[in-house]
Amino acid sequence: MKRILLLSFVFITTLLFGVMAQRTVSGKITDDTGDPLPGVNVVIKGTTTGTQTDLDGNYRLTLADAGGGGNPCLFLCGF
């Protein structure tokens, strides 16, 4: 019985730490004059994880913490 309780505790603890191993990256993209830039693609370098800024230039990414930090790359295609 003690062994089952111990294994259950280890399993639940592992699941909780897996959920907590996430981080959120957020920010606001503006131009030189401080105006927001909507539609900018924000991608974490070396991954396919990304998002797009809203009308106010805000973005938010939830990342799994893989032990290394990724650098955000910004892409804007204008006409």
Descriptive account of the structure:
The protein has about 80 residues and is an alpha+beta fold. It has one domain. It has 1 helix and 5 strands, in the order αβββββ. Strand 2 and strand 3 form a beta hairpin. The longest helix is centred in the N-terminal third of the chain and has 19 residues. The relative contact order is 0.22.
User: How many strands in all?
Assistant: 5
Low-confidence stretches: none
Q: What would you call the structural class? A: alpha+beta
Report how far apart the termini are.
Answer: 68 Å
Query: Helix coverage percent of residues?
Result: 10-25%
Strand content: 25-35%
Largest beta sheet: what is the strand line-up?
3-2-5
H/E element order: HEEEEE
Total number of distinct structural domains: 1
The shape, in one word, is rod-shaped
Number of helices: 1
How does the major sheet shape up?
Answer: 3 strands, antiparallel
Rg on CA atoms, Å: 19 Å
Mean pLDDT: 74
